[in-house]
Amino acid sequence: MPDDVRGVGASLLRKEDERHLHGRGQFVADVKLPGTIDVAFVRSPHAHARIRSILVPPEARGRVFTTADLPRVKPIRVTSHSTGAKSPPWPPLATDKVRYVGEAIAACIAPSRGEAEDLAAAVAVDFEVLEPVVDPVRDMRGSRYPVHENWGDNLYIEHVLAGGDIEVAARAAEVTVTRDFRMQRQSGAPLECRGVLAYRDHRLDEVVLYASTQTPHTLRVALAEILDLEERRIRVVAPDVGGGFGPKARLYPEEIILAALALQLDHPVRWIEDRDEHLLTAAHTRDHHYKVTAYADRQGRILGIDAEIVVDAGAYGLWPQGPYHEAGMVARALPGPYTIPNYRAKHYTVATNKTPLGPYRGVGRPGACFVIERLVDEIARAVGREPNEVRAANLVRPEQMPFTTVGGMRLDSGNYAESVRLCAELLDMPAIRLRKQRGEPDGRQIGVGFATFAEQTAHGAAEFAARGAAIIPGFESCTARILTDGSVVLMVGIQSHGQGLETALSQVAAEELGIDAARISVRHGDTESTAFGFGTFASRSMVMSGGAVARASRILRDKLCRIGAHLLQCDVADVRCADGMVSGPQGSVTIAEMAKVAHLRMDGLPQGVDPLLDATATYEPAISTGVYSYATHGAVVAVDPETGFVELLDYAVAEDCGTMVNPMLVEGQIRGGVVQGIGTALYEEIPYDEAGQPLVGTLADYLLPGAAEMPAIKIGHLHTPTPHTEYGMKGMGEGGAVAPPAAIANAVRDALSGLGAEVNETPITPRRVIAAIRKARAAASKT
Amino acid sequence: MTAVRFQINGVAIADDVPPRLSLADFLRERRNLTGTHLGCEHGVCGACTVLVDGEPTRSCLMLAVACDERDITTIEGFAGDRVIETLRRNFHRHHALQCGYCTPAMLITARDLIRRRRAGSEREIRDGLAGNICRCTGYTNIVTAIAATAEDIARETPNA
Questions:
Q1: Within 13 Å, how many C-alpha atoms sit on residue A158's CB side?
Q2: What is the pTM of this model?
Q3: Residue range of the domain that includes B145
Q4: Is A393 inside any structural domain?
Q5: Nearest CB partner across the interface for B100, out of A240, A665, A672
Q6: Count of domains in chain B?
Q7: What is the ipTM of this complex?
């Protein structure tokens, strides 16, 4: 790529780096306001209990706030239009009952966090402890004490997604593979925990909330509704956000309480979540149970999939989308990018006395991919073929595009089988086979595994409406403004927290306006300076916000051409806007000169052209069901059958996200996603005991992937621009995290094939590997 | 309250601190040195790493009172430091940061690895970063940036 290309397609280095490299980023906890008082919460130590009383020591009165002290605060309530969906009210501070360990009961204020915690410890809550609901499979139809007593059962929603006729597949099957699968509960665990700083701006008559959030605009919508305040009196700012990954795209009780406290008290209040609180109370993710049967013919052609999916969704639904989407996404994604004709998925979203479940990079897809890709490998084993041969034989072919899967995903473009071939090439299969044959001197077993998936990205309004959502993320917005000197500010409704959108969006405007990206600023994350937008999640920002930037920039470009043609005294049809100027047959005029005219020298404007260079545009792709990136991941592992330890030796990704605006950023997103997916595959887990107590509380027991265990990740690209978006780009932020559990589980299975052992539960810990080997040995000794 | 005196980024500081105040909170809340980040407050994630008497130290586990008479350097205090400046250049060039939360501590840890000559191979660098968690990058580019810096520094000082 030549150095002077700075528009779409350039690996432009990031604008964001300078501040962070000097420790000058500004995260919520870095914002300092005089007189700020810290907040700590009294939280439930029980999974399920009635609150008999809350006793505040007399000396703490006025510094401890319960629901009774905050009359403005109403319960959080998610609206869903899905048939049969139940939606419990969620008081931001528990009133008569607590439903998970960590649920907030009271807010305590003090000059330092330490003193606020002292205060919280002095509040005595009298509980009547109830038997908790911890097993969603057992208790979905009812329990002695349902999570929400007036329901009768513990089901948020149940649904059947079906296509074709599964009975036909069952009758025709020559090969049947049945398995249970499990993906454990996780935390999104951004390195920066959540945080809120709230204060009242009397001059502007508004409450200002600095929050570590991915969605400042929708957070304002929620606060206005719950606090019964006009939106004009609320400003939400997401400053630098230290990672989000999904959990920060939801409304939390703490944000409501901090805003309510700021309205009631005459000083700023802040709550900076610590890691213990984060692991306990920020959205948990995944937590799927599966029972699945695959039907195939003798060649490994998949005839049908029959699945039961149970999602353990915790005690409440997080606003705005509630608990419903995880299982729904699993059900739709489970058939993968395969031409499977018959499908049935019964899925259940179950309320339990655990932390509410929310989105995390991939939303449902990592589990779906894990299940279908493990099944593909088992079918291959059953019919005696190479897994990738069976994979390729079942994958959708380019000439079938657009292709709607039996799960209802409309794949728009690409050559999926080619990604399988490219991924195998990146891993150097002949060398792996040789190493496998030779054997390891230390007795470890080598295995290789693959997984292919399609990633629905940038889905729009119709798609979310079809899911029964009450708030349907569709468009994104951009206000593009050229200032009097020709420099540019883009004000966008999304929020960037590591993705590099300050850089990538400026590249889009540079492409359209011919202005150097270095002269373009991107403002985001502030409801004050940006038009409404939904925020960054669902692999949508580059497609949606990039599209809005392109459209707003083109409006300005057209205006520049009109002004330029006038100044050059030629016809507008004869000018072009490029390289920071408008050029006609007889000469050119710079954007800076035209900007001056548009603001400071209106006498130079043509008749009928208004002053200002300021345009607001929105964008949603022409297709609302999303555009589909896809990839094949490959993993090479060494498994120690004595200790059960899995070492990742190599990892490769062959992917296609259409046109890449900034290939460097794309690869950064892929590698980051893969390592999070490796965390799902091998390390991360929040187990609960029978009393509903979570058994992790620190990063010493909740294991995040570290540099030492990770391989360098190889990447190969395919390029199939989608016809449905600006420039042909597809979203790709989540995909990296989707396939690692599947690819690694297949690799472990391959490594243990001689022993006949397989692990169908993530994380694939040494304990689970040893258990699988023992089980296989016991089964072998019986026969 | 306990009286403490120390050097922070080359400046002599005297203050009275509560015994339970961590060094990290002291730096962030009292000195406004907010480049020191808190990711776990129990010594695992490494985001709060600063130098105490030249040694990389978890400022979340160290109490301010324990720093009496000691020399503390935070990310704000490396002006003119050749290794940090080379690291910054290479982190930028190799896209070794995303959200930026782990970055200041990554730089301080990487500088220490390079100065101790523990950045000679990918394996060595990865092991040396075991105490610093990054949730965004997947580490590949961080390792590349540190390796490039080690090479740059070695090239500039062949006899050192």
A1: 13
A2: 0.97
A3: 82-156
A4: yes
A5: A240
A6: 2
A7: 0.98
